[in-house]
Amino acid sequence: MLRATVQSVFTLAGALLASTATAEEAAAPDPPPNSLDYLQYGVALSAEALAEGGQLCPTHRRADCVLGSGGGLAIRVGYRSRGAWLATGAYEFSRHDSSNLLRLAILQQLRGELRYYLERGTRLAPYAVTGLGLSVYGSEWGVSTGGLVGVLGAGLEFQITQSTVVGCAPMYRAFLLRRFTDSAGQLRAGEYLGFGLAHFVAFEVVLEVRDPLPRW
To answer: Given this model, what pLDDT does residue 21 score?
Structure first.
C-alpha cells in the first residue's frame, strides 16, 4: 500500500513538471524562421576606448591628445537574409575627449557592416561582424578632419520577443584620418602620406527590431 502511494506521488509530480515545461516552451518566443527575409533596424549605445592614437595623441608633453575616448549612439537599418547573413548601414555619432582643443568634439561615422551568425534556429545567436566606412571629426558637428574607418568584432544576439532582439558586441575600430592643424597650432595625423592611424576598442549594447519582408 505504501509503495503504491509513493509511486502515485512521483507519477503526479512528473506529470506536473512536464506540463510546466510545456507551458514555458509555449510562452517562449519562437526563433525567426529561416524561410523569411527580414528588415532589421534599431539603435545601439556605444563606448569607444582609445587604444593607440599615434600622432593624434603624441607622447611628448607639448601636444595633448585631440581624439580621446568617448561614447555615443548608433542607428542601423539592414537586410537579414534567409541564411546566416545580415547586411546593415550604420550612422554613429559620439562625443570624445579632446583635451579642450575642440569646443565640443564630435566623431561621426557612416559604415556598411556585415554580420555572419554562427548559430541559427535558437534564441541566442553569436555572430561575427566586419565593416568599412567614412568618418569625420571636428568641433560642434564641424569637420576638422576625415577619412576611413574599419570595424572587426563579434557579438551575441538574444531574442526577447518574436520581433525584438537585444545584444552586445565588442569591436576593434581603426580610423585613418587626414592630417590637420588643431587650435593650438599642432599638426596632427601626418605620418602616413598625410594620414594618421588611431586604434579604438569599442563596446555596443544593441536593441533591434525585425519585420518580415513580403515574398516576391
So the answer is: 45
